User: Fold this.
Amino acid sequence: MKIAIVIFRNNLRVKDNYALYNATKYNSVVLGLYSTQITKGENYNFKACQVYRQNFINETLLNLQEDLTNYGVNLSIVDDIQIALEKLSKQYEIKIYFDEEVGTYEKEFEDILKKYKHKSFFNQTMIEPFYFDYKKSFSHFRKKAQKQKILAPLKNPRKVKSIEFETKQLEIVDLKMPNFAIKFKAGESEALKRVKYYMQYIHSYKKTRNEMLGFDNSTKFSTYLSIGAISARTIYHELKQEEQRSFESESSYWIYFELLWRDFFHLVMYYSKNALFLKKALQDKDYNFKTTKSLINNFINANTHIDIIDASIVELKSTGWLSNRNRQLLANYLIKTLGIDFRIVAAFFESYLIDYNPASNYGNIAYQAFVGNDKTYRVFDVIRQSKQYNGRVYINKWLNKEEQEPNFDYKKMADEVKQTVYCIENSSQ
Ligand SMILES: Cc1cc2nc3c(=O)[nH]c(=O)nc-3n(C[C@H](O)[C@H](O)[C@H](O)COP(=O)(O)OP(=O)(O)OC[C@H]3O[C@@H](n4cnc5c(N)ncnc54)[C@H](O)[C@@H]3O)c2cc1C
Assistant:
């Protein structure tokens, strides 16, 4: 018997899912398959996926299993994809449908799938891949990207038949978090609900997006996007519809602008392949980044003695969430003031972030580390920014104390890193 197998990866949804749509369109028997191996592993001694993201994925998978039954499709959850495919191919004539992703492990996973008859799609971004110089700046990309057409989301898949195949039970851990922590409800319908709910804020988004605390100051779409509980195109079309119903504003444009950053980093990784995981990343220079154990242990234990940095580490480690402003301050401080190897910083973020995806994470961190798409050497004054963005309240919540000025010269440390790690004299770049 012929069967189509849809590999679910970071496309955990029914709507606008190219692999599912095409498998059900051209086949009458379809099985969904998800492998837990995609979140396993370790980088620089950090577990690849901590409990916050794992829980969110598991809850989304349980939702998806239920949603797929409306289309007649069973979703099997297995550990090892190769073993599962070997078993299935012994019993059936299989054809695999999958969405392509970016990233080294992601491509290695695809190599296993490609051993079988298959059809693949690239559906990670709003804009389809198009040529641009991936070493250049975001502005270079944006000028071209804004001229690209964005496809409308697909119609729902067709109802088909499925087969029974082994599936493992997923564990949902009962997480204890403070009541002011950012918490996400998992599942495709929750993702769409969040997008529809957020439409009331699109005209104020630009003003509030840099705040460190709060659920509605920014969209919080990233968590759903990272595992594909909703597609970027669906969000774009919801945004456009709301602009037609209300009006277009600089602020509503800014959501599209930020989604373009997401596309940018995805397409930079699409073209640069594994470069962003390497020490030189997109640049030619080999910097003297530090890998000293004590430096690393101090930051992991939120022991940097800069309150805004320590508070950010505590929030990330105890919830999986961090606002964009805090991510920037944290990454910039660890790399540009402490001189830590950006790949260690990236592995730390990867481990804890609930919305981790390789392109946005490594793209942003390489950008902060001056080895990515940023051509200007920037050091953030974290104390000044803390004052500017109401860090006092944030610190009070996460460290349960009043903000204190550091008793050491963090600016001098940043100057030293610039000279010794980056070998740049202070007056020039
Ligand atoms: C050090 C560092 C690490 C990061 N790691 C990740 C990551 O692993 N996964 C991830 O999704 N984002 C990452 N980002 C980007 C950004 O911080 C988050 O996407 C954003 O904070 C998520 O909150 P939001 O959905 O409310 O964003 P909004 O401000 O509401 O933005 C809307 C959407 O635009 C996209 N977006 C916004 N800013 C960026 C950006 N700088 N780069 C790429 N896409 C962006 C996201 O998809 C986001 O959901 C990182 C940023 C930094 C500085």
Residues 99 and 123 are 7 Å apart (CA to CA). Residues 209, 218-222, 225-226, 255, 258-259, 261-262, 265, 323-324, 327-328, 331, 349, 353, 355-357, 360-361, 364-365, 368 surround flavin-adenine dinucleotide (CB under 6 Å). Strands lie at 2-8, 30-35, 42-43, 46-47, 74-78, 93-99, 118-121. The longest strand covers residues 2-8.
